[in-house]
């Protein structure tokens, strides 16, 4: 089985949607992070808490995964585009209003995340970690990696993050986020001018 | 069990996220269309083709449902905001460039939908209809309801729609889309001026 992140050579060939992450299992290829996690949980019959067999708990994971797309996923990664990737390709920083606008959207989403989903529970669906927490945390570490520490003034969110770190294991947690947490170092690399010219307008469009 | 569309009185009380559609089953409440469909398919043990037990086919449904959010769902309903709902609350039509921009985004999504998902298959995951087709069709009927017939110049998409209509049953299909297909009639209703003032900026923000 091949499971590749964005910087792996095989990923472009694998994903049907030419998107990363991508999974290849024999002749079978699959894109989309949530679909891949669900597939792996079924194929390897992972512990029940990741995607509980209880239909109400399972529905709560599904509810979060669906909400996630138009909220956390729609906002959090934009911080990386604005602070690192777009300046890298255009050669100029974006006006600060752009970041402020995204941070406001993210702030609204985080308020909902805390009040509607997390509430006073240890994890999104209750006392045990599930795929919902995993999908949320990897997206929420992206702003952290570019210097927008969204956990700083949100104690409830920070406590949840600590519980996720403990449940996953601190070593694995930081290994999984190593690239994201050092993404600012990308600012120092040189990029082919032609590639810059091609990609800059595409990147700008993604911010819309 | 209560399952309410946006115009039902109970919906606001039911949905944890104050969103519609919403489901209430005893004490259990659930928002998000895809989570509700998955819950119902499990609770009522619906025929296998809706969400196949084969893990690869199931993964393909999940892949589509995930992709759907940032593509079809992110574009198709905006046509209704632009053509009917925002003019209704602001009292003025939006500049035509706004609709054009949304239609271009939708066009890109539809190209991917046909080439990556539908291909030369009868339905999204093969020869049988699944939840992926249902989730896609209800979103794609929204532009049709406001006069942007996206099926007109897309024979492959139109053939797929006919197959979905047949699989669901034509009567049920049109019953389910009756409100969407007559949404233009909303333009004639009178709205409380204070409500207009409150909602206009919120609606405009949704277009971003």
UniProtKB/TrEMBL annotation, chains A, B:
One annotated Gene Ontology cellular component of this protein: cytoplasm
Coiled-coil region list: none
Tree of life domain: Eukaryota
Residues covered by the GST C-terminal domain: 54-195
EC number(s) recorded for this UniProt protein: 2.5.1.18
Entry's Gene Ontology BP terms: glutathione metabolic process
Molecular function per GO: glutathione transferase activity
Catalytic activity: RX + glutathione = an S-substituted glutathione + a halide anion + H(+)
Residue intervals of the GST N-terminal domain: 1-48
Family: Belongs to the GST superfamily. Theta family.
Subunit record text: Homodimer.
Official protein name in the record: glutathione transferase
């Amino acid at each position: 089985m091949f499971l590749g992140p964005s910087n792996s050579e095989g990923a472009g060939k694998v994903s049907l949607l030419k998107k990363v992450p991508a999974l290849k299992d024999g002749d079978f290829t699959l894109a989309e992070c949530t679909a891949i996690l669900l597939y792996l949980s079924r194929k390897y019959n992972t512990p029940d808490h990741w995607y509980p067999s209880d239909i109400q708990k399972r529905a709560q994971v599904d509810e979060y995964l669906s909400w996630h797309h138009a909220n956390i996923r729609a906002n959090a990664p934009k911080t990386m585009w604005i602070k690192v990737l777009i300046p890298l390709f255009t050669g100029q920083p974006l006006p600060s209003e752009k970041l402020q606008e995204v941070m406001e959207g993210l702030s609204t989403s985080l308020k909902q995340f805390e009040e509607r989903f997390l509430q006073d529970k240890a994890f999104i669906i209750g006392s045990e970690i599930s795929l919902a927490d995993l999908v949320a945390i990897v997206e929420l570490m992206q702003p952290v990696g570019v210097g927008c520490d969204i956990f700083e003034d949100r104690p409830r969110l920070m406590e949840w993050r600590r519980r996720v770190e403990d449940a996953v294991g601190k070593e694995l947690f930081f290994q999984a986020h190593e690239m994201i947490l050092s993404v600012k170092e990308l600012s120092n690399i040189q990029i082919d001018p032609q590639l810059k010219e091609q990609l800059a307008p595409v990147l700008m469009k993604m911010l819309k």
